[in-house]
Specification:
mainly beta; Immunoglobulin-like; six-stranded mixed sheet; Pili_assmbl_chaperone_N; signal
Length: 247
Amino acid sequence: MPKMFARRAAAALLALAQPTTAWAATLKIYPVLVALDDKTPVETMTIENSGDAPARMQVRVVAWRQDNGQDLFEETRDILANPPLFEIAAGGQQIARFGLRTAATPTEKSYRVFLEEIPTDRPTAAGEIRTLLRVSIPIFVTAPGAQASLAWQLTATNDRQLTLTARNEGSAHVHLNRLDLKRADGTPLATRQESIYILPGATRSFLFDMQRPVGGGEKLTLEAATGQRSMTAQLVLQSASHAGGTR
């Protein structure tokens, strides 16, 4: 089960020498990824309110796709969220259920559930600003044997800046956590910490500012850590006009 996480939004603002406070609900939500399939068409999510005031929430599920590196969302009836509206008392919890209303396909289907805080009647003190929490959790409808397959392309912008492009040519998502570029002898060149999903058929690009200059045609090693496994690829640095992909 994915690790529980707590998300808290709070800030202190100063305007015209008048103290002003912004606050929002404090929630713990788990799991942080929901997987559904034909054998497991229903899953639950627990939302805990560890704050000192009630939290009123609404739940929406949308279809999720990616195009030109952007996340796009569309209304859907494929997954039923129950209950769609609820209030959690301070220190209380709520169980939300998600039911699959469509059949799995050979290519994984992707969705997002948005948990959005709704304003309550709680009075605010003078100078206090209420901010509303909005959390997004992925839902995947998986199929047996579906796997991600990444094709990589490394292009030079100049001798100290590279663009790494990843295209998911597989049938399941991949979750990138860390990207390391090294010379063939293991010398580190650049690192990026990420938390990026790449859906089937989607492409994402990452810009690297290099610690050392690199030249066209140089062979580099990419080490990518994902939520499922680590992978290594040997890449040849291309100029923008001679780019090619490597799996």
